[in-house]
Amino acid sequence: MTTLNELTLADARDGLKAKDFSATDLAKAHLAAMEKARGLNAYILETPERALAMAEVADTKIAAGAARPLEGIPLGIKDLFCTHGVATTAGSKILEGFQPHYESAVTHNLWRDGAVMLGKLNLDEFAMGSSNETSAYGDTISPWRRNGSDTKLVPGGSSGGSAAAVAAHLCLGATATDTGGSIRQPAAFTGTVGIKPTYGRCSRWGTVAYASSLDQAGPIARTVRDCAILLGSMAGQDARDTTCADLPVPDFEAAVSRGVKGLTIGIPKEYRVEGLSAEVQALWDRGAEMLKDAGATVREISLPHTPYALPAYYIVAPAEASSNLARYDGVRYGLRVPGKDIAGMYENTRAAGFGREVKRRIMIGTYVLSAGYYDAYYVRAQKIRTLIKRDFEEAYASGIDAILTPATPSAAFGLGEKGSGDPVEMYLQDVFTITVNMAGLPGLSVPAGLDAQGLPLGLQLIGRPFDEETLFAAAQVIETAAGRTKLPAAWWA
User: Fold this and answer.
1) Known catalytic membership, residue 78
2) In total, how many domains does the chain have?
């Protein structure tokens, strides 16, 4: 028998509407599961009192026949989204004790539509990481394990807490953010579905900034349909964010069943990179066959500037981070470490408050923005970014409707297995996802199979600007053909 926390979001919505169970029952089932799964460290903060109060309101709305789109649906919130009166840390000691007096645009939209907040989810510090090993609140552990092994695996990052919580049935869906793959990579590692929408589809207002021209909010959920439902509530125009598009929000859920007949799917030859595992290559080929069998045409394309995306990204993102993180100085909020004067306080606070990876990226960013190196590094990186965007524009102009690639070079790895000595090894995890952020396009990761060790592997679909609907339709074809990934048994309970 399926317990309430194991339902899909769509099934839970239907069950609430049919009054098979109450929103309070649903919230309590998730709170109980969260209590048993604290060893995964997916949540930084649990908010049971708020969850039950919101569920009670939802039950009242449902009883009155006034249910909203997400009425009574329990969600986890990545701790990068400011939540009014609830601690927001960005996974960093430097925001210790910070309780915003305002609500982020994305979470406001979710509460407006009746969702219930279960708590704040763990993440790499300031979203800087690909494994959820840089959080000041400890590593998040994936609910997955290799066959016959007790090795602790990473859930991916930076949205590792979001992906782990969804995969472990600790929420029906979660908010996440994606700067270079931080939704799609953890979704691929945990057998969940994650979409990074077009830049500007969701407001960034009230979301702690990492790299402002790359950051975009999106959902992680257990099915393509669930993801579409969540994005429909998260998205929308917001006058407080000048980069947020003034466009109507489509019916993403309706697009899920649209199919791919008549579409042309591109396979970029530059994504056949050195080090790509044979299993991922075989999965990619199977994904193309799934789409062909459903009526799509598949053809090879070229995105010639792809090899330059990773180095360009690791100039642009740290440069913007060094600027954005200059505001954390101990003066207005968060951690304050006294010094002999104000300069000493700045130095002491930032030295104690930021972790090693954040310091590394601030220093890289400050260096590439300095007077002697701005033109040599930052300006050149932005020129490459323009060329990457042009590659995609030319592909779509040639009749391509969407692009299919791997989501990650391999399945999830163990804690401490990558990046401990050489951070570049960790940065290479983003090789397939970074181009999407550099070009501002939508990208979706959908589970498509398991590797020989029993770990999930994902495929990535990349779409035209503001055409998330085609991605949902194509992803549903893959989900149906591959079969929904059976999530792991609760070994942690």
Assistant:
1) yes
2) 1
Identify the active-site residue in 22, 28, 78, 233. Answer: 78
Query: Pairing state of beta strands 74-78 and 116-121?
Result: parallel
Catalytic residue at 233? no
The answer to whether 426 and 415 have CB atoms below 8 angstroms apart is no
Instruction: Find the catalytic residue in 22, 158, 233, 445.
Output: 158
pLDDT digits (tens, 9 = 90+) for 353-376: 999 999 999 999 999 999 888 998
Cα separation, 121 vs 182, in Å, equals 14
Report H helices in 334-449: 342-353, 356-369, 380-397, 423-427, 434-439
Catalytic-residue membership of 149 = no
Query: Within a domain: residue 101?
Result: no
Domain boundaries, position 349: 310-379
To the question of pTM greater than 0.70 for the whole model, the response is yes
The per-residue pLDDT for range 106-142, each reduced to its tens digit, is: 999 999 999 999 999 999 999 999 999 999 999 999 9
Catalytic residue among 135, 182, 233, 445: 182
How much helix, strand and coil, in percent to the nearest 5, is found in the chain? 40, 15, 45
CA dist 452 and 411 (Å) reads 10
b/e per residue 465-485 (b: at least 16 CB within 10 A): bbbbbbbbbbbbbbbeebeeb
